[in-house]
Write a structure and sequence with these properties.
Layout: E1 10-14, E2 17-21, H1 26-37, E3 41-45, H2 51-54, E4 69-75, H3 82-89, E5 105-111, E6 116-118, E7 121-127, E8 135-141, E9 144-149, E10 176-180, H4 185-188, H5 199-208, E11 213-217, H6 225-241, E12 247-250
Parallel strand pairs: 2-3, 3-4, 4-5, 9-10, 10-11, 11-12
Antiparallel strand pairs: 1-2, 6-7, 7-8, 8-9
Length: 259
């Protein structure tokens, strides 16, 4: 009731630039608000195509409005372009309207790991440790840095994060890190290889990288508000013992963060 239960969708605004990260169920309510604001040009950046990150796409109402331009930036997943991924499930009998009949203008941009620019934002794709492949992203603008690493498993070595002893440079002193924190340490012992992290691993990474703020993200779907409060209390205790200045919080539906 306090944290919310929508799946992944994060909005980024800077100047006139509007970016939406992933198309989980949260994108439906976002789309309703964007219609009221009469936004016409939207950038959608996708991390991967697992159901909880794409299931809201057909219900994003700006798609039904002529004159809307949607630039979709996404990785190839298992060699498949993201446009093909969408075309495969936005069609009958899964959805009554095929992707080709959507009124908005869609432009697809395949990402290969090369940095790109949207408005004044520099976007650096970062490979994540997740089944079937995924990308995280580092956003930089005028000395501010936001790193978004959802669906990333820290307990198993991977290309993006090799160890806690050598934190990656892309995280060093980031103003904000949003990181997967799906499991407790005890739960993670049973879930190794599932592509998600324990909150303790995410916290340790943030402390060692001297990150300024850490948002715990991608909560376990069965997690209660009370359990999340207990997780945060444990994190704050660890931070105090480490004599760190890290600001840690639980990501909640509708939360706004200003950098």
């Amino acid at each position: 009731m306090k944290t919310g239960g929508e799946t992944c969708c994060v909005e980024i605004r800077t100047g006139e630039t509007l970016i939406v990260m992933d198309a989980g169920t949260g994108i439906r309510e976002l789309g309703n608000r964007l219609l009221r604001e009469k936004n016409r040009h939207i950038h959608l950046i996708m991390t991967h195509a697992h159901w909880d990150h794409v299931i809201g796409f057909p219900f994003f109402r700006p798609l039904t409005r002529r004159g809307t331009r949607l630039d979709i930036h996404a990785p190839r997943l298992m060699g498949t372009p993201f446009q093909t991924v969408l075309e495969d499930f936005i069609k009958p009998p899964y959805f009554p309207i095929p992707l080709s009949d959507i009124k908005a203008v869609l432009r697809f941009h395949d990402l290969d790991g090369t940095p790109f620019q949207i408005g004044s934002l520099i976007v650096d794709p970062i490979p994540l440790n997740h089944p079937n492949g995924a990308l995280g992203y580092r956003f930089s603008e005028r000395g501010k840095t936001f790193v978004f690493l959802t669906d990333n498993e820290l307990g198993v070595p991977c290309q993006a994060v090799r160890s806690f002893e050598e934190p990656p440079l892309f995280l060093h002193r980031a103003d904000l890190l949003i990181h997967d924190a799906m499991y407790t340490p005890k739960e993670y012992e049973r879930m190794k290889g599932w592509g998600h992290s324990s909150y303790r691993d995410a916290l340790e990474l943030a402390i060692r990288s001297d990150v300024r703020r850490l948002g715990l993200f991608h909560h376990h779907p069965d997690r209660t508000d009370m359990e999340l409060d207990e997780i945060l209390a444990d994190c704050l205790n660890v931070i105090r013992k480490a004599h760190s200045d890290l600001d840690c919080f639980v990501s909640r539906q509708g939360m706004e963060i200003h950098l």
